[in-house]
Model the fold of this input.
Amino acid sequence: MRFIKITLTIIVFITLTTLTQVGGIAYLFSISTFKSINKFILNSTLRLTSKIASFLFIYCTISFLVVPEIAKQFGRVPLPFKETNHIQPLNILTVLLNRNYVKKELRETTFEVARKMNKKYPGTTINYLDANFPFIDKFPLFPHLSHNDGKKLDLSFCYIVRNTNQLTNNCPSWIGYGICEEPLSNELNTAYLCAKKGNWQYSLLKNIVPQSQKNNFLFDKKRTRDLVNFFGEESSIKKIFIEPHLKSRLNLSSNKIKFHGCQAVRHDDHIHIQL
Done:
């Protein structure tokens, strides 16, 4: 029984650490409260609820009060929790899971591009997706191959509401990934070519993420093109990843735009920028 308990603790620790970087530590701290909970709460349901609440309280305290200060020592700062300077997380889970940290230079560059976008298209807000964990270079941000040094950031495309033709800051995918702007018949189909080479993961998210909202949105070529170009004009930005057929369709010419390779995942559902 003790072996099973220790094994489960290790599994939970590894899982929480993989997903949030600090969740495992929060879990170990919360375990210290479980003995008191078991002693004073007899109802099993209330006891479990109290243990979960204890973990969440400790996790949030560490994430919002302790982590930002430690992250500074690694040169990383959090992107905003809510809409700030025309930047917002598409999904609040990005923040709650500590996946919203970047180098200060990247945050300032993103704020500047967001200012330009909002000036040209009033009301436009840039939705950010996965960034990086708060600290420790080379600590992987699952499931990304990179996003481990504070220098990378994913952004959603811009969209139009199909029924009204109105510009929107919403996206067809609740996580920003997985709903793709597929290549036309006359465009390079990188997804097909990569799959043909055996790279099964290339279109994995498309096969997982529900597609039910896709028909409610239109890809906003104009705003997305300007978004990429504005980042391309920033001296701090060294690379931009977007699927080759969209680079051609949007007439993007910046030499910073690169192909991310078949070992990654497709980039016709988001934009990747990096210092």
Observations:
- The chain has a mean pLDDT of 93.
- The chain has two domains: 2-73, 79-274.
- The longest strand covers residues 152-156.
